[in-house]
Amino acid sequence: MGTVAKQALGFIEEKLRRVFNLAGPIGLTLNPDVTPVIMVDDLRDPGHAFYQGRSFAVTHADVPAAGTRAAVTQFNNDCVIEAIWAYGTIAAAGNLDMWVVTPGEMVATPPTGAVTTLSGAWRDRKNVTLDQPPIANSPWAVITGTARTTNNGVWSIAAVGAAMTLPGWVPLRMFMPAGSAIAWTATNTGAQALSLGCVGRVWPQ
């Protein structure tokens, strides 16, 4: 009598436990059969979530002062960033950088001081005016704590030789633990108006 080999997908099981907040074995195995599937909807899209999985957008629309200034977007729950955007113009020899600040760094030495202003809006079931995502913005300020280094930089752009128009929409998927932040640094931008921000979802769905 022949036997059919089975393969346990241990790491996939662990991911499913995290997504659905499950405990114990799931018993996921590979099946050699091919089954046609029709995708009728994506339960991660706006409109399906009550809190976990709810979609948000948050922006920094401001004019940083000349010189080097930083602004912070802090995530007060576990969140997934799906994309960032950067609109506007930076002057010749200007730089725009984005880096990650861990929860411990935000508590000890936030780059711009206290970050307390709730910001952004839900893209998903916003029925009450004061209902906001668990996200806070800081104003543009001189860097006072954690700065961009070679081990926390995520995205940057530089205007070499002439002014540069920022690229706009940038796909960039990142997991942000509760208490962590992304920080922007505008260096020698000529005090240009910038619109910087991100869209994403509350973890885990």
Keyphrases for this structure?
single chain, 205 residues, mainly beta, six-stranded antiparallel sheet, 12 strands, 37% strand, elongated
How would you describe what is shown here?
- The protein has helices at residues 10-20, 103-108; strands at 55-62, 68-75, 79-90, 95-101, 117-118, 121-122, 135-137, 153-158, 164-165, 168-176, 181-187, 194-202.
- It is mainly beta.
- It is elongated, with a radius of gyration of 21 Å.
- It has one domain (55-202).
Task: Quickly describe the structure.
The protein has 205 residues and is mostly beta strands.
| Helix and strand run | HEEEEHEEEEEEEE
User: Strand portion, in percent?
Assistant: 35-45%
Our Rg estimate from Cα atoms comes to 21 Å
Structural class by helix and strand composition: mainly beta
Low-confidence stretches: none
In total, the number of domains comes to 1
First-to-last CA distance: 43 Å
Strand count: 12
Main sheet specs:
6 strands, antiparallel
User: How confident is the prediction overall: mean pLDDT?
Assistant: 85
Tally of separate helices: 2
Net shape: elongated
Summarize the amount of helix as a percent range: under 10%
Oligomeric form: single chain
